[in-house]
């Protein structure tokens, strides 16, 4: 898998974190730096850890799925992308957006990185340097979280839904590309 494929996957995965960070930025009340750091650390850490965990799980079953890796990648990435779009369209509670507590941020970080876990599983069946992949995914998630918090604090809710939908579309397109072209 090329660096550009990994970069686009990282961007697609980071769109969930971007959307949540925009929501957090909406409630910034002058605390944009704090929100940037907290959301960046939560989402960046989980987006780094979850694909690695998925890769390890996938390694144990990869010899069973190697012959169907392209179709498995297509199915998983399309399902993940469609789920991202569905979750983006669903409304969230305003109070939940404002909170930076572990009780709110931990589930948000896990929820936004479940798709990264599934992508990690597919990495096990593909030619992927997992260290570069997880570091890139984590860095992009951290960066997009910071950008999202800033966007939210400056522009309001204008881009929140579009970023989640765009992320889903990117993952679907990457799945189609892997199926049609290969790694």
TrEMBL record:
Compartments (UniProt record): Cell membrane
PANTHER family the record matches: MANGANESE EFFLUX PUMP MNTP-RELATED
Function description: Probably functions as a manganese efflux pump.
Mode of membrane association: Multi-pass membrane protein
Annotated TM spans: 6-23, 35-55, 61-83, 104-124, 130-152, 164-182
Key words, A-Z: Cell membrane, Ion transport, Manganese, Membrane, Transmembrane, Transmembrane helix, Transport
Family to which this protein belongs: Belongs to the MntP (TC 9.B.29) family.
Keyword Isomerase annotated: no
Protein name in the entry: Putative manganese efflux pump MntP
Key word Transferase present: no
HAMAP family to which the protein is assigned, alphabetical: MntP_pump
InterPro entries in the record: Mntp/YtaF, Put_MntP
Main localization, broad class: membrane
GO cellular component terms given for this protein: plasma membrane
GO MF annotation terms: manganese ion transmembrane transporter activity
